[in-house]
């Protein structure tokens, strides 16, 4: 039943998303709400989220293929497949954000290696190849040393690309809210946390139905992992916000206030903290509930929504403080504003990306990965 | 009229001008200008134009273009902004040189401060290294340029610029959705031709006929009117400034007006603490 609903949700999201993709491809970017002052919006945030998800999924696949943890045996292929789907989905999201996406080849053939963006594109390309090779080896010779070598390289690459995204923002000294030294450290942890949440959904909702005891063990281990990672994540966030407010530097204060009390307050308190953090933490800390397939999957979904919103609340608030006083009012014109709420077309494109990811993961779990067989 | 010298000056010239209007060339004696007369001074524009020609004779790499903006003279008229829009045929939402207004004090003790903000043409530009395809770079003359045909539109440079000096061309036009009256030259019919005509940034033609082609989808910025400089003309914002508050020239020329101005202690640069080494100076 859950699978059918998930297929329907994925298909509907994709269907709604095709409208936005059509508008983007054939009419350009005027229907978006990001602009010249807030230049990076929902699509960039979703890239951070989905690429992080791919890195996290890969990290968790190593529990099966690299570290041979007994309770995760049989989950590796599903996680590798999820990584293989979510990474291109994230790259598609950022691709839509490009003013001239037809020139993306230039990043490969005419690159500027001083640019961290170039390093990220190359890094993610390498990571995609590593995921594909890992999955191929998982099907053909999972017990061979080649698999271990590739998984080691893949694990290091996953940590580096996840940390690289943190650097992409944190390295920007002119955006004080992003310029946090620990960003490259935080992001791999965020990635691992989102990977664990995805695994809760995959194991809880779509895992093999026989061998209930083992699945309950997996879910409980994932619940404990999720609780630890969520607490670490909250600690990072609280320390970032309190430091910013206590330091009193206007750019930081404006950014944090926009999250806590401004236009992002609902997203932060209700979605990120309430739905995406507190409810899962409370529910998953109860062993009975955490071992329940449906409940664990649902909490995984809540966590994923919370992590996605958390990415938006890193990307957007970093740009809300005017670079110079009075800049917002100095010249009027379309998209010369420091207010940002994603437009319907932006949500539509994101729905397409998410819908594609849901369908591709489900089809993969049904047709390619053979969850039941590999579990033995 | 509180200043007696001002009053005398006005009285003298006003009477001469008025007399000239009423009875031109008859019985009006124009007094010759003395060396200390303010009207005897060479206009800054004339001097800068002469210095520009001198700079253009030098090898490109030996020029160091700088802009100096005298905030004491700026009246916040935004003529420079509009001149820039017209010169570069900037579409809606793209601006190279806004003028920021800041209100100082509380009523009734208030005054206004104006801050024109072109691109700072930083010597250590944060926008350049972040570009994944080297579409933006400092050219030989030290001006930070954008290669529209190379730019992929990722907006990383916009995020990196601490001055907000870059805007994105989303392909807007002024005439879109404007009314058209048949048989009359109004709205889109008359204006569209002008709007679609080519801009001449970077000494190339950039027609706005195809709204999917560059510079649409690119990040755009002030380039000190490079195309005008190449043609021996000062930037549009400089020639348009009604208060002669914007100066431009070669800082490698020890006799230039800009060198004279930036060597004084009352100049500042914006956000100098970031180490960007801007080439735009403000006289305060």
Give a written overview of the molecule.
The complex is a heterodimer of chains A (376) and B (284). Helices cover 74% and strands 0% of the residues of chain A. Chain A has 376 residues and is mainly α. Chain A has one domain (2-374): Formate dehydrogenase/DMSO reductase fold. In chain A, helix 3 (76-96) runs antiparallel to helix 5 (116-140), helix 7 packs antiparallel against helix 8 (212-247) and helix 8 packs across helix 9 (250-260). In chain A, 55% of the residues are buried. Mean pLDDT of chain A is 93; it is low at 372-376. Chain B has two domains: 1-40, no CATH class; 42-283, 2-Layer Sandwich (Alpha-Beta Plaits). Helices cover 25% and strands 14% of the residues of chain B. Chain B has eight helices and ten strands. Chain B has helices at residues 4-22, 44-56, 79-87, 156-160, 188-196, 226-230, 236-240, 257-262; strands spanning 65-70, 99-104, 111-116, 136-138, 144-146, 166-168, 219-221, 246-250, 267-268, 280-283. The interface between A and B is large, with 44 and 49 residues.
Instruction: Return Rg of chain B in Å.
Output: 22 Å
Distance between the termini of chain A: 25 Å
**Number of helical runs of chain A?**
15
How many DSSP helices of chain B? 8
Determine the structural class of chain A based on helices, strands and strand pairing.
mainly alpha
Order of secondary-structure elements of chain A: HHHHHHHHHHHHHHH
Q: Under CATH, the topology of the largest domain in chain B is which?
A: Alpha-Beta Plaits
Question: What would you call the shape of chain A?
Answer: globular
Order of helices and strands of chain B: HHEHEEEEHEHEHHEHEE
- Order of strands in the sheet with the most strands of chain B? 8-1-10-9
Q: What Rg of chain A is obtained from the alpha carbons, in whole angstroms?
A: 20 Å
Determine and state the CATH class of the largest domain in chain B. Alpha Beta
The greatest interface here is:
A-B, 44 and 49 residues
CATH topological fold name of chain A: Formate dehydrogenase/DMSO reductase fold
Distance between the termini of chain B: 26 Å
Mean pLDDT of chain B: 89
How many DSSP-defined strands of chain B? 10
Largest sheet of chain A: none
Q: Helix fraction of chain A?
A: over 70%
State the CATH architecture of the largest domain in chain B.
2-Layer Sandwich
Work out the helicity level of chain B. Answer: 25-40%
